[in-house]
Amino acid sequence: MNVSNHPSITNKTLRSKAQEVEQILSLYKEGKNITEIASSLHFSQSYVQDVLLCAQTLAEDDAMAIAMVMEDS
User: Fold this and answer.
1) 29: Cα within 13 Å, side-chain hemisphere
2) What is the tens place of the pLDDT at every residue in 15-44?
3) What superkingdom heads the lineage (predicted)?
4) Is the dihedral of CA 24, 25, 30, 34 positive or negative?
5) What is the model's pTM?
């Protein structure tokens, strides 16, 4: 799901976080490691690690679901 065009997402912060999650997951699926992803996207390694851990814990790659969990943490 491309969250940038999702009409039901009204919270700009949540939409932005979901886009970050999509970027991280996309690079991870390409075989990039945490260091490479963090460097490429200018995120901290701990943030990338948290997103990937959350995605693994949820056993899905729904960027919005992951963003919502990340926002609550």
Assistant:
1) 9
2) 888 899 999 999 999 999 999 999 999 999
3) Bacteria
4) positive
5) 0.76
